[in-house]
Amino acid sequence: VVGGDRLVLTFRRSSLRFAAFALLWSLALSAAAWASLGLALRAWRQLWGRGWWERPEGGAVVTKRDRSMGGKEVVVAVSSPVLPPVSHVKEPARKVRKKEPQGRLPEWWPEIETELVELGQEADKWAILANRLVRAIVDNRVAGRDYRYDDAVQLRQLCKISGVKVSFDTENARDSFYRATTGFVLDDCSRTAEDMGTAQINGENPRDFLAGLSMNIGLDKFRAATLVCASVAARTRACLLQCWALEIQGKRAEALDELVKICRIHRVFPPEENSAEMEMVAGGLKKNLEVAERVHLLSLYRSACTTGVKTVAEALGLSSPDQ
């Protein structure tokens, strides 16, 4: 005791070393014990399965006696709880009524009757020739070459004589070929005289030729009529724009020739009144021509042709021919 209020303890150096080593060993042993306990628990789970504390509610324990462990029962599986069946009430099936498209043919579309031709042993020969021609048409198009009018006329002739029907690889190829052929026919109509009877394609008038060709290549007549009407509308728009371009250049005679082409085409394939195709033509021309310019084109058309004035007025977006 020093001064009556402090207690001084003295230790030997060996005692301090012993205390330090004891503390370190106790920490190391406790860490090793915790690690051993964790490994033991993991081995227990792997060997003996889940314990009762991890068993799911309602799960049945499947045990089996293991001979290698002296016949002791071990847990081999825990079945999942069986849930009560859920009743599914089937809703009554809804009847979906498909609206079949009701196509409408133009009044000028002819009814082509299929003639039964008895060729006997030559039937296969005609079929081979027709299909070979279709293959050549498709190959030329794939190679980047345009369709030829002569191929369409020859294909129609082969199918008309033999009654053979051909098919293209895809609908797109078939429609593209028919659309190009329609353009060739419109070129013929625009160059021939006014009378439809003088416009002949290999002995057929243009209407019968296109209707018969659509039947030969397996194209639905409603689809074929739509393609023809669309081509007539596109040609009408092109001729009107070309007419105005020539008119502003002072080439009146050539401008009138473009209007005569429209007149001849409409005589063979007259557009229906208030047709959707002519409305689309009018919508496009309104963006390119002013009202006064369209009225001037209509007056030029009257001077070049006396028929189809109302149809051209619709194509120009004019409410009445007298506007």
In words, what does this structure look like?
Keywords: Membrane, Transmembrane, Transmembrane helix. The chain crosses the membrane at residues 18-41. The protein has 323 residues and is mainly α. The chain has 3 domains: 8-50; 105-219, no CATH class; 232-323. 56% of the residues lie in helices and 4% in strands. It is built from 10 helices and 2 strands. The chain has helices at 13-48, 123-142, 149-162, 171-191, 206-216, 221-248, 252-268, 276-288, 291-304, 309-315; strands spanning 61-66, 72-78. Strands 1-2 form a two-stranded antiparallel ribbon. Strand 1 and strand 2 form a beta hairpin. Helix 3 (149-162) crosses helix 5, helix 6 packs parallel to helix 8 (276-288) and helix 8 (276-288) crosses helix 10 (309-315). It starts with 12 loop residues before the first helix and ends in an 8-residue tail after the last helix. Mean pLDDT is 80; it is low at 51-57, 82-93 and 95-101.
How would you concisely characterize the structure shown here?
This protein is mainly alpha-helical and 323 residues long. The protein has 10 helices and 2 strands; from the N terminus they run αββααααααααα. The longest helix is centred in the N-terminal third of the chain and has 36 residues.
